[in-house]
Every structure is written in C-alpha cells, then in structure tokens.
Amino acid sequence: MTDVLVFLAEGFEEIEAISAIDIFRRAEFDVQVASLTNDITVKGAHQIEVNADITLDTVAEKQFDLIYLPGGGGSAEALRSDPVVQQIIKRHHQAKLKIAAICAAPIALEEAGILKGHHATSFPAMKPQIVTPIYEEKSVVISGHIITSRAAGTTIEFALTLVSELGYPDVANEISLAILHK
User: Fold this and answer.
1) The total number of structural domains that make up the chain
2) Residue 133 pLDDT
3) CATH code, 110
4) What is the spatial distance between Cα 100 and Cα 61, in angstroms, rounded to a whole number?
5) CB burial of residue 143 (10 Å; 0-12, 13-18, 19+)
6) Average pLDDT along the chain
7) Catalytic residue among 103, 126, 130, 141
8) Given a cut of 90, is residue 73 above it in pLDDT?
9) What is the pLDDT of residue 157?
10) What gap in Å lies between CA 138 and CA 74, rounded to an integer?
11) Which terminus, N or C, of the chain has the lesser number of Cβ atoms within 10 Å?
C-alpha cells in the first residue's frame, strides 16, 4: 500500500489540497491528512473548512512514500516555519522519498535546504523566494524525488503525475480517463 501524508495548514489552497487528496484516494493510496494545529478542522484560503484525519504530532516520526504540500499563502508560510514539517521534509529527502509541493509551498522546500541542484517550479510570484534550484516555468517539474507544480489550475495534472511517479502509471491513466482529464 502506498502511504501519502498531506499537510493542511490554515490558509491552504482548497483546490490544491482537496483535488490531490481525491486523486490519491481514487488511486487507493492510504492518505493521511494532517492538521498543523491541535484542531482537526482547518480553514482554507477561501474560508472552506476541511476536517483533517489526524494532527501533525501523530505522524511526526513516521515515514511516507509521498509527502504532499498544498500551497496557499498562509499555508506555505506555516509549512516553511513549522519545525516539525521541516524535520519531516528533511528526513524524507535524506531517504530519497517523494516530496511534492505546489504553488507557494515550494518555499517550505527551499527553507529545508533540499532544492539546491534540483529543478523546481512554483506560483510565479514565489519565484524570488526560491533561489537554490534551477527554476523552470512548467506546469509540473520532476527532479528526482522532488516534484513541484505551479498553481491550482495544474493540480489535476500534478496529482496524476504523482500517482504515475509512485509506480502506478496505468492507474493514473485510468483515473484521467474516468474524470475526463484531457
């Protein structure tokens, strides 16, 4: 079973979180959605409240096949400044496990110091804060175990790419056909 951890911080971009979680669950991955606060209910950037499965402290020491960081301005700042999130990112990087960040969230990867020598992308306004990777203006950028994407509008492509990169290209294709993506 493929294990995925999705971080939810106040101000997360709802499309980037919920759409990806949906794709991962359609792929039958074991998805754990973790709130960065002690409260399971997390409010997104557009005031949509979502219930996480767990709080971050319950998974702080666990390892996942993929960690997924949705964007959103407030969320990205929280992911960048949270010491537990930073520890999880660094630990997964050392183990060469998949790390995915979209929109503003690559600033958390920059903070963790894991982008140097990698290719990456982000929401265009975040480019000045992402200085160590080789920056590309593509929808999805795969650089070894680090995979980044640009914004809400690229979420479906991004999530399907992640399913494929986790070893399930046929499942990604089936989901793409089922949801009439492209």
Assistant:
1) 1
2) 85
3) 3.40.50.880
4) 19
5) middle
6) 97
7) 103
8) no
9) 98
10) 23
11) N
Read off the pLDDT of residues 91-108 as tens digits, 9 standing for 90 and up.
999 999 999 999 999 999
Residues whose CB is less than 8 angstroms from the CB of residue 102 and which lie 6 or more positions away in sequence, other chains included: 13, 16, 20, 69, 70, 71, 148, 149, 150, 151, 154, 155, 158
* Residue 103: active-site member: yes
> What domain range is 75 assigned to?
3-179
Picking from 125, 99, 126, 128, the residue whose alpha carbon sits closest to that of residue 112 is 99
Cα angle: 116, vertex 79, 168; to 5 degrees: 70
Task: Provide the percentage of residues in the chain whose pLDDT is more than 90.
Answer: 96
Question: Could you give the C-alpha distances from 91 to 8, 16, 27, 56, in angstroms and in order?
Answer: 19, 24, 25, 15
